[in-house]
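dumping this here before i forget
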Amino acid sequence: MIDDVGLAWIDEPIVYDNFRGYAHLAAELKTPLQIGENLYSPRDLYTAIEGRACHLVTPDFMRIGGITGWFRAAAIAGAAGIPMSTPLYPEVAAHMMRVTETAHWLEWQDWVDPILERPYEIRGGLLGIPDVPRAGLEWNEKAVEAN
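structure:
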């Protein structure tokens, strides 16, 4: 019944490490199945993709192994042609998506904006990434001290 409601994808509907269950769902559903926020290494991502447990992946930086783990996961997703999105840490994730072959969606939250000197801007539904060295993040020290 869920296939008929017009969802763009279904995100992690069962316990994260049940790859066999995900593979069954992925085979049965017309709606794309996305997993990855709870994968703890690029090797887990590879296992999920190899087992056809998903149509889309969204690794979390803290769990996938940081920037290095992201690059490894992105190579695996790219080789398999699996679209890759990001959850959380959008100011860093935006840069990583620029170099991810199968970049899909950037999940955006403005939670850190109140303590940034220059928050990233969204224009026309797209994130404007500053053309500055590094990630372009500078703390507003007065706002940080006040919090």
